[in-house]
Amino acid sequence: MNNKESLTEVLKKEGLRYTLQRQSVWDEIKRSKKHRDAEEIYQALRGKNIGVSRATVYRTIDVLTKNKMVQKMDVGDGKSLYEAQLDNDHHDHMICVDSGKIIEFFDEELELLQDKIAKKYGYKVVRHVHQLFVKRII
Amino acid sequence: MNNKESLTEVLKKEGLRYTLQRQSVWDEIKRSKKHRDAEEIYQALRGKNIGVSRATVYRTIDVLTKNKMVQKMDVGDGKSLYEAQLDNDHHDHMICVDSGKIIEFFDEELELLQDKIAKKYGYKVVRHVHQLFVKRII
DNA sequence: GTTGTTGCAAATACTTTGCAACTAT
DNA sequence: ATAGTTGCAAAGTATTTGCAACAAC
Questions:
Q1: Residue B94 CA to D13 C1' — how many Å?
Q2: Which residues contact A16 (CB under 8 A, 6 or more apart)?
Q3: One pLDDT digit (tens) per residue for chain B, 138 residues
Q4: Which domains are seen in chain A, by residue range?
Q5: Of A110, A128, A131, Cβ closest to residue B117
Q6: pTM of the model
């Protein structure tokens, strides 16, 4: 899937116009593989040729998350972190409590087990949040 | 473990004084088995004989969470939810996206699997956040 | 030209904090 | 008496929103 296309498609679907600001927010989120908060994304865009406001950053992230192009995550401090949700790239996060390092992981068995647990209660999983706060083994 | 004792012990350990406000916040959190936010806890205490301020509610919750008497959880809207952390009562949460109902669950296999995954990366799990957002199976 | 979008600053929502009055020891 | 605690209201932090100027169609 071409990302430029997916953005325009999503905007069309939502009845929204294609703008340079929206493209640049999406580009910026894709550009960095790190999990960043809205302010970092905003600051990264400042000083580049295309200016955006915080309001537009938040508003664009909103559309992108609604359409599963961006994943929002919460590490427990006030703010949310965002990362581009590329195709076939579901993963959970391990956060080192000492270094703050975020490690992505995926485990098929874990995914299946969650479905099994939900089913036992009469539910199906639509999404999940799974974060392991970890320490290095010496 | 007696809860009155554990509160006084914790306060002593922290070099803090025992007060009616602190006791009443802890009592109120224990009283309800539901997951509530700071405002709900504050409002529940208002209108009772012992008055407390929001500031004291937040400050007390802070001590209680630091000492694992209360567990803080985040469902993704702005606010945090709190629940008493009673002995041997670890569990994760399933949140129904339709009704908002919160179901607690515990699965030994899941716990072990998490440890195994972390170990594979050279880490050990110190705590985890695991929430399944679910829908009823019709 | 019309209607959606942007940026700004003000508003909001939750939580934290400074400080003077108060209370436990 | 002393040092910690409370309540209040102000400040802080992240995010949302109203609105006039502006840009896409």
A1: 29
A2: A22, A63
A3: 445 558 999 999 999 999 999 999 999 999 988 899 999 999 999 878 678 999 999 999 999 999 999 999 988 888 999 999 887 788 999 999 888 889 999 999 999 999 999 999 999 999 999 999 999 998
A4: 3-84 (1.10.10.10), 92-134 (3.30.1490.190)
A5: A110
A6: 0.88
